[in-house]
Amino acid sequence: xxxxxxxxxxxxxxxxxxxxxxxxxxxxxxxxxxxxxxxxxxxxxxxxxxxxxxxxxxxxxxxxxxxxxxxxxxxxxxxxxxxxxxxxxxxxxxxxxxxxxxxxxxxxxxxxxxxxxxxxxxxxxxxxxxxxxxxxxxxxxxxxxxxxxxxxxxxxxxxxxxxxxxxxxxxxxxxxxxxxxxxxxxxxxxxxxxxxxxxxxxxxxxxxxxxxxxxxxxxxxxxxxxxxxxxxxxxxxxxxxxxxxxxxxxxxxxxxxxxxxxxxxxxxxxxxxxxxxxxxxxxxxxxxxxxxxxxxxxxxxxxxxxxxxxxxxxxxxxxxxxxxxxxxxxxxxxxxxxxxxxxxxxxxxxxxxxxxxxxxxxxxxxxxxxxxxxxx
Length: 376
What we know:
The chain is of the alpha+beta class. The protein has three domains: 2-113, DNA Polymerase III, Chain A, domain 2; 123-246, DNA Polymerase III, subunit A, domain 2 (DNA Polymerase III, Chain A, domain 2, Roll), CATH 3.10.150; 250-369, DNA Polymerase III, Chain A, domain 2 (Roll). 16% of the residues lie in helices and 45% in strands. Strands 1, 2, 3, 4, 5, 6, 7, 8, 9, 13, 15, 16 and 17 form a 13-stranded antiparallel beta sheet that branches. A hairpin with a 2-residue loop joins strand 6 and strand 7 (94-99). Helix 5 (261-271) packs antiparallel against helix 6 (325-333). The longest helix is centred in the N-terminal third of the chain and has 12 residues, at 7-18.
Protein backbone atom coordinates (compact mmCIF):
# COMPACT_ATOMS: atom_id res chain seq x y z
CA UNK A 1 0.00 0.00 0.00
CA UNK A 2 1.26 3.46 -0.90
CA UNK A 3 -0.61 6.77 -1.04
CA UNK A 4 -0.54 10.47 -0.23
CA UNK A 5 -3.53 12.00 1.63
CA UNK A 6 -4.53 15.40 2.94
CA UNK A 7 -3.72 15.68 6.63
CA UNK A 8 -7.10 16.98 7.93
CA UNK A 9 -9.14 14.45 5.95
CA UNK A 10 -6.93 11.61 7.17
CA UNK A 11 -7.25 12.78 10.79
CA UNK A 12 -11.05 12.81 10.51
CA UNK A 13 -11.15 9.35 8.92
CA UNK A 14 -8.82 7.79 11.49
CA UNK A 15 -10.52 9.49 14.45
CA UNK A 16 -13.91 8.32 13.24
CA UNK A 17 -12.81 4.70 12.82
CA UNK A 18 -10.85 4.60 16.07
CA UNK A 19 -14.03 5.19 18.09
CA UNK A 20 -14.97 1.54 17.48
CA UNK A 21 -11.59 0.08 18.41
CA UNK A 22 -11.19 -1.43 21.88
CA UNK A 23 -8.32 -0.25 24.09
CA UNK A 24 -7.89 -3.54 25.97
CA UNK A 25 -9.61 -6.15 23.82
CA UNK A 26 -9.66 -9.86 24.55
CA UNK A 27 -8.79 -10.33 20.86
CA UNK A 28 -5.76 -8.10 20.02
CA UNK A 29 -6.85 -7.40 16.43
CA UNK A 30 -9.85 -5.43 17.73
CA UNK A 31 -7.46 -2.73 18.98
CA UNK A 32 -6.66 -1.92 15.36
CA UNK A 33 -8.16 -0.05 12.44
CA UNK A 34 -8.07 -1.28 8.86
CA UNK A 35 -6.80 1.02 6.10
CA UNK A 36 -7.75 0.13 2.54
CA UNK A 37 -6.11 2.23 -0.19
CA UNK A 38 -7.94 2.02 -3.51
CA UNK A 39 -9.05 4.23 -6.39
CA UNK A 40 -8.77 7.84 -5.22
CA UNK A 41 -8.48 7.53 -1.45
CA UNK A 42 -8.18 5.45 1.70
CA UNK A 43 -11.02 3.91 3.72
CA UNK A 44 -10.38 3.58 7.46
CA UNK A 45 -12.57 1.15 9.44
CA UNK A 46 -12.96 0.14 13.08
CA UNK A 47 -15.15 -2.70 14.39
CA UNK A 48 -15.67 -4.45 17.74
CA UNK A 49 -18.46 -6.83 16.66
CA UNK A 50 -21.10 -4.49 18.15
CA UNK A 51 -20.26 -1.13 16.58
CA UNK A 52 -18.47 -0.21 13.35
CA UNK A 53 -17.20 3.21 12.29
CA UNK A 54 -15.87 3.99 8.84
CA UNK A 55 -14.25 7.11 7.42
CA UNK A 56 -12.66 8.00 4.10
CA UNK A 57 -9.95 10.42 3.01
CA UNK A 58 -9.23 11.47 -0.54
CA UNK A 59 -5.71 10.74 -1.69
CA UNK A 60 -3.40 9.82 -4.53
CA UNK A 61 -2.98 6.05 -4.49
CA UNK A 62 0.13 4.72 -6.24
CA UNK A 63 -0.09 1.18 -4.85
CA UNK A 64 -3.47 -0.17 -3.65
CA UNK A 65 -3.39 -2.33 -0.55
CA UNK A 66 -4.65 -3.03 2.97
CA UNK A 67 -3.02 -2.79 6.41
CA UNK A 68 -4.20 -2.99 10.03
CA UNK A 69 -2.47 -0.85 12.68
CA UNK A 70 -3.09 0.14 16.30
CA UNK A 71 -6.04 2.53 16.31
CA UNK A 72 -5.22 4.66 19.32
CA UNK A 73 -1.59 5.19 18.35
CA UNK A 74 -2.44 6.06 14.74
CA UNK A 75 -5.11 8.53 15.88
CA UNK A 76 -2.72 10.28 18.26
CA UNK A 77 0.02 10.45 15.61
CA UNK A 78 -2.17 11.84 12.83
CA UNK A 79 -3.64 14.53 15.12
CA UNK A 80 -0.12 15.69 16.03
CA UNK A 81 1.11 16.04 12.43
CA UNK A 82 1.86 19.41 10.80
CA UNK A 83 -0.57 20.69 8.20
CA UNK A 84 1.14 19.02 5.25
CA UNK A 85 0.36 16.07 2.94
CA UNK A 86 0.76 12.69 4.62
CA UNK A 87 2.55 9.83 2.86
CA UNK A 88 1.62 6.29 3.90
CA UNK A 89 3.44 3.18 2.69
CA UNK A 90 3.50 -0.43 3.83
CA UNK A 91 6.98 -1.84 4.04
CA UNK A 92 7.09 -5.50 5.03
CA UNK A 93 5.35 -5.83 8.39
CA UNK A 94 5.32 -2.09 9.07
CA UNK A 95 3.48 1.03 7.98
CA UNK A 96 5.65 4.07 7.33
CA UNK A 97 4.04 7.47 7.78
CA UNK A 98 5.86 10.60 6.63
CA UNK A 99 4.60 14.18 6.97
CA UNK A 100 7.06 16.96 6.34
CA UNK A 101 10.18 16.05 8.33
CA UNK A 102 8.20 13.82 10.73
CA UNK A 103 8.55 10.09 10.16
CA UNK A 104 6.86 7.21 12.02
CA UNK A 105 7.13 3.46 11.59
CA UNK A 106 4.28 1.38 13.01
CA UNK A 107 4.00 -2.39 13.25
CA UNK A 108 1.06 -3.86 11.36
CA UNK A 109 -1.35 -6.64 12.38
CA UNK A 110 -2.48 -9.61 10.27
CA UNK A 111 -5.10 -8.35 7.83
CA UNK A 112 -6.67 -11.81 7.56
CA UNK A 113 -7.50 -11.74 11.30
CA UNK A 114 -9.54 -8.55 11.06
CA UNK A 115 -13.31 -9.21 11.20
CA UNK A 116 -15.53 -8.42 8.24
CA UNK A 117 -17.59 -5.27 8.79
CA UNK A 118 -21.36 -5.61 8.48
CA UNK A 119 -22.95 -4.06 5.42
CA UNK A 120 -25.37 -1.18 5.77
CA UNK A 121 -29.04 -2.20 5.86
CA UNK A 122 -31.62 -0.56 3.60
CA UNK A 123 -32.20 3.19 4.06
CA UNK A 124 -35.51 3.95 5.78
CA UNK A 125 -35.27 7.73 6.21
CA UNK A 126 -33.14 10.84 5.92
CA UNK A 127 -32.95 13.63 8.50
CA UNK A 128 -31.11 16.90 9.05
CA UNK A 129 -27.87 16.07 10.86
CA UNK A 130 -27.98 19.04 13.22
CA UNK A 131 -31.58 18.35 14.22
CA UNK A 132 -30.94 14.68 14.91
CA UNK A 133 -27.72 15.39 16.81
CA UNK A 134 -29.53 17.90 19.03
CA UNK A 135 -32.35 15.43 19.73
CA UNK A 136 -29.88 12.65 20.57
CA UNK A 137 -28.03 14.94 23.00
CA UNK A 138 -31.26 16.02 24.68
CA UNK A 139 -32.59 12.49 25.11
CA UNK A 140 -29.37 10.53 25.67
CA UNK A 141 -28.68 12.30 28.97
CA UNK A 142 -31.54 10.41 30.64
CA UNK A 143 -30.40 6.94 29.60
CA UNK A 144 -29.20 4.55 32.30
CA UNK A 145 -25.56 3.59 32.89
CA UNK A 146 -26.21 0.29 34.67
CA UNK A 147 -25.18 -2.50 32.29
CA UNK A 148 -27.14 -5.03 34.38
CA UNK A 149 -30.27 -3.32 33.06
CA UNK A 150 -29.41 -3.16 29.33
CA UNK A 151 -32.86 -1.96 28.26
CA UNK A 152 -32.40 1.20 30.33
CA UNK A 153 -29.06 1.97 28.61
CA UNK A 154 -30.70 2.53 25.24
CA UNK A 155 -32.48 5.28 23.36
CA UNK A 156 -35.79 4.14 21.92
CA UNK A 157 -36.42 5.33 18.37
CA UNK A 158 -40.05 5.26 17.27
CA UNK A 159 -40.54 5.84 13.54
CA UNK A 160 -44.06 6.92 12.56
CA UNK A 161 -44.26 8.23 9.00
CA UNK A 162 -42.43 11.55 8.92
CA UNK A 163 -42.03 11.78 12.71
CA UNK A 164 -39.22 10.23 14.73
CA UNK A 165 -39.69 10.08 18.51
CA UNK A 166 -36.67 9.57 20.75
CA UNK A 167 -37.13 8.38 24.35
CA UNK A 168 -34.84 7.26 27.16
CA UNK A 169 -35.13 6.65 30.89
CA UNK A 170 -33.07 5.40 33.82
CA UNK A 171 -36.24 5.05 35.98
CA UNK A 172 -35.56 8.33 37.81
CA UNK A 173 -35.92 10.63 34.81
CA UNK A 174 -37.31 10.43 31.31
CA UNK A 175 -36.50 12.42 28.17
CA UNK A 176 -38.57 12.70 24.99
CA UNK A 177 -38.12 14.57 21.71
CA UNK A 178 -40.02 14.50 18.41
CA UNK A 179 -38.36 15.54 15.14
CA UNK A 180 -39.40 15.54 11.50
CA UNK A 181 -37.77 13.09 9.08
CA UNK A 182 -38.14 12.16 5.40
CA UNK A 183 -39.06 8.45 5.28
CA UNK A 184 -38.52 6.31 2.19
CA UNK A 185 -41.93 4.76 2.94
CA UNK A 186 -44.67 7.17 4.10
CA UNK A 187 -46.24 4.35 6.13
CA UNK A 188 -43.03 3.67 8.05
CA UNK A 189 -43.81 2.21 11.49
CA UNK A 190 -41.04 0.60 13.51
CA UNK A 191 -39.59 0.81 17.02
CA UNK A 192 -35.97 0.02 17.90
CA UNK A 193 -33.66 0.41 20.89
CA UNK A 194 -30.14 1.75 20.20
CA UNK A 195 -27.30 1.81 22.77
CA UNK A 196 -27.28 5.38 24.09
CA UNK A 197 -23.48 5.57 24.38
CA UNK A 198 -22.98 4.62 20.74
CA UNK A 199 -25.70 6.97 19.54
CA UNK A 200 -24.47 10.00 21.49
CA UNK A 201 -20.82 9.49 20.55
CA UNK A 202 -21.75 9.08 16.89
CA UNK A 203 -23.96 12.17 16.88
CA UNK A 204 -21.05 14.29 18.16
CA UNK A 205 -19.17 13.62 14.90
CA UNK A 206 -21.94 14.89 12.63
CA UNK A 207 -21.55 18.32 11.14
CA UNK A 208 -23.89 20.03 8.71
CA UNK A 209 -25.62 17.82 6.19
CA UNK A 210 -28.12 14.99 5.94
CA UNK A 211 -28.00 11.69 7.80
CA UNK A 212 -29.24 8.55 6.08
CA UNK A 213 -30.76 6.14 8.59
CA UNK A 214 -30.54 2.45 7.64
CA UNK A 215 -32.28 -0.32 9.54
CA UNK A 216 -32.59 -4.07 9.79
CA UNK A 217 -34.95 -4.70 12.69
CA UNK A 218 -34.86 -8.49 12.33
CA UNK A 219 -33.29 -11.12 14.56
CA UNK A 220 -29.80 -9.73 13.91
CA UNK A 221 -30.95 -6.17 14.46
CA UNK A 222 -28.67 -3.50 13.02
CA UNK A 223 -29.01 0.25 12.55
CA UNK A 224 -26.78 2.40 10.37
CA UNK A 225 -26.07 6.13 10.04
CA UNK A 226 -24.35 7.64 7.01
CA UNK A 227 -23.32 11.27 6.58
CA UNK A 228 -20.88 12.15 3.84
CA UNK A 229 -18.03 9.65 3.96
CA UNK A 230 -18.70 8.66 7.58
CA UNK A 231 -20.61 5.45 8.22
CA UNK A 232 -21.64 3.87 11.51
CA UNK A 233 -23.45 0.64 12.30
CA UNK A 234 -24.59 -0.59 15.69
CA UNK A 235 -26.31 -3.65 17.01
CA UNK A 236 -29.76 -3.07 18.48
CA UNK A 237 -30.76 -3.80 22.06
CA UNK A 238 -33.72 -5.99 22.86
CA UNK A 239 -36.51 -3.49 23.37
CA UNK A 240 -39.47 -5.85 23.19
CA UNK A 241 -40.57 -5.15 26.77
CA UNK A 242 -39.75 -1.46 26.87
CA UNK A 243 -42.03 0.17 29.48
CA UNK A 244 -44.90 2.44 28.33
CA UNK A 245 -43.09 5.55 29.52
CA UNK A 246 -45.21 8.09 27.65
CA UNK A 247 -47.99 7.55 30.17
CA UNK A 248 -45.74 9.07 32.86
CA UNK A 249 -46.08 12.55 31.39
CA UNK A 250 -48.92 14.41 33.16
CA UNK A 251 -51.79 15.74 31.06
CA UNK A 252 -51.90 19.07 32.92
CA UNK A 253 -49.87 21.09 35.41
CA UNK A 254 -51.72 22.92 38.21
CA UNK A 255 -48.48 24.77 38.97
CA UNK A 256 -45.82 26.03 36.59
CA UNK A 257 -42.77 28.29 36.60
CA UNK A 258 -40.61 29.93 33.95
CA UNK A 259 -37.01 30.27 35.10
CA UNK A 260 -33.70 31.45 33.58
CA UNK A 261 -31.72 28.33 32.65
CA UNK A 262 -28.13 29.55 33.10
CA UNK A 263 -28.81 31.27 36.41
CA UNK A 264 -30.64 28.29 37.86
CA UNK A 265 -27.85 25.91 36.84
CA UNK A 266 -25.21 28.06 38.54
CA UNK A 267 -27.35 28.49 41.66
CA UNK A 268 -28.00 24.76 41.97
CA UNK A 269 -24.28 24.02 41.55
CA UNK A 270 -23.36 26.42 44.34
CA UNK A 271 -26.03 25.32 46.78
CA UNK A 272 -25.37 21.63 46.12
CA UNK A 273 -21.79 22.00 47.35
CA UNK A 274 -23.01 21.30 50.90
CA UNK A 275 -25.26 18.41 49.85
CA UNK A 276 -24.37 14.77 50.35
CA UNK A 277 -24.62 12.38 47.43
CA UNK A 278 -28.24 11.43 48.17
CA UNK A 279 -29.33 14.82 49.48
CA UNK A 280 -31.71 16.81 47.26
CA UNK A 281 -31.76 20.49 46.54
CA UNK A 282 -35.04 22.13 47.48
CA UNK A 283 -36.80 24.58 45.19
CA UNK A 284 -39.45 26.75 46.85
CA UNK A 285 -41.90 28.75 44.73
CA UNK A 286 -44.43 31.24 46.11
CA UNK A 287 -47.49 32.40 44.24
CA UNK A 288 -47.29 36.08 43.38
CA UNK A 289 -43.52 36.19 43.90
CA UNK A 290 -40.88 36.55 41.21
CA UNK A 291 -38.23 34.88 43.40
CA UNK A 292 -37.27 31.23 43.72
CA UNK A 293 -35.41 29.97 46.80
CA UNK A 294 -32.91 27.14 46.33
CA UNK A 295 -31.72 25.31 49.47
CA UNK A 296 -29.69 22.28 50.50
CA UNK A 297 -28.45 20.76 53.74
CA UNK A 298 -25.50 18.43 54.22
CA UNK A 299 -23.19 16.81 56.70
CA UNK A 300 -22.58 18.34 60.15
CA UNK A 301 -25.44 20.80 59.74
CA UNK A 302 -23.87 22.50 56.70
CA UNK A 303 -26.58 24.38 54.85
CA UNK A 304 -26.87 26.72 51.90
CA UNK A 305 -29.61 28.81 50.34
CA UNK A 306 -29.85 31.34 47.55
CA UNK A 307 -32.64 33.45 46.08
CA UNK A 308 -33.04 33.62 42.31
CA UNK A 309 -35.21 35.92 40.22
CA UNK A 310 -37.61 34.11 37.89
CA UNK A 311 -39.94 35.18 35.09
CA UNK A 312 -43.15 33.77 36.55
CA UNK A 313 -44.80 31.24 38.84
CA UNK A 314 -48.47 30.36 39.06
CA UNK A 315 -50.27 27.66 40.99
CA UNK A 316 -50.10 26.34 44.56
CA UNK A 317 -49.54 29.16 47.08
CA UNK A 318 -46.24 27.73 48.28
CA UNK A 319 -44.59 24.76 46.57
CA UNK A 320 -41.38 23.10 47.79
CA UNK A 321 -39.95 20.34 45.63
CA UNK A 322 -36.75 18.30 46.14
CA UNK A 323 -34.64 17.08 43.21
CA UNK A 324 -31.38 15.25 42.67
CA UNK A 325 -29.15 18.25 41.81
CA UNK A 326 -27.23 16.54 39.00
CA UNK A 327 -30.40 15.23 37.36
CA UNK A 328 -31.86 18.73 37.52
CA UNK A 329 -28.72 20.27 36.01
CA UNK A 330 -28.64 17.65 33.23
CA UNK A 331 -32.23 18.43 32.29
CA UNK A 332 -31.63 22.18 32.21
CA UNK A 333 -28.43 21.78 30.17
CA UNK A 334 -30.25 19.72 27.55
CA UNK A 335 -32.78 22.43 26.68
CA UNK A 336 -30.76 24.74 24.47
CA UNK A 337 -32.98 27.71 25.42
CA UNK A 338 -32.51 30.70 27.72
CA UNK A 339 -35.60 29.94 29.79
CA UNK A 340 -37.14 26.74 31.11
CA UNK A 341 -40.79 25.93 31.72
CA UNK A 342 -41.18 23.62 34.74
CA UNK A 343 -44.61 22.06 35.19
CA UNK A 344 -45.71 20.55 38.52
CA UNK A 345 -48.65 18.40 39.59
CA UNK A 346 -47.59 18.55 43.25
CA UNK A 347 -44.44 18.13 45.35
CA UNK A 348 -44.53 14.33 45.13
CA UNK A 349 -45.29 13.68 41.47
CA UNK A 350 -42.97 13.97 38.45
CA UNK A 351 -42.14 17.45 37.18
CA UNK A 352 -41.60 18.15 33.49
CA UNK A 353 -38.96 20.57 32.18
CA UNK A 354 -39.15 22.05 28.67
CA UNK A 355 -37.64 24.97 26.82
CA UNK A 356 -39.77 28.10 27.26
CA UNK A 357 -40.94 30.89 25.00
CA UNK A 358 -43.42 33.43 26.40
CA UNK A 359 -44.09 31.10 29.35
CA UNK A 360 -45.02 28.17 27.06
CA UNK A 361 -43.09 24.93 26.40
CA UNK A 362 -41.40 24.80 22.99
CA UNK A 363 -39.64 22.52 20.48
CA UNK A 364 -41.19 19.15 21.40
CA UNK A 365 -38.54 18.28 23.99
CA UNK A 366 -39.64 17.15 27.44
CA UNK A 367 -37.52 16.08 30.41
CA UNK A 368 -39.40 14.40 33.25
CA UNK A 369 -37.70 14.25 36.64
CA UNK A 370 -38.85 12.38 39.72
CA UNK A 371 -38.91 14.45 42.93
CA UNK A 372 -37.26 13.31 46.17
CA UNK A 373 -39.56 13.29 49.18
CA UNK A 374 -38.29 15.56 51.94
CA UNK A 375 -39.30 16.19 55.52
CA UNK A 376 -39.43 19.83 56.48
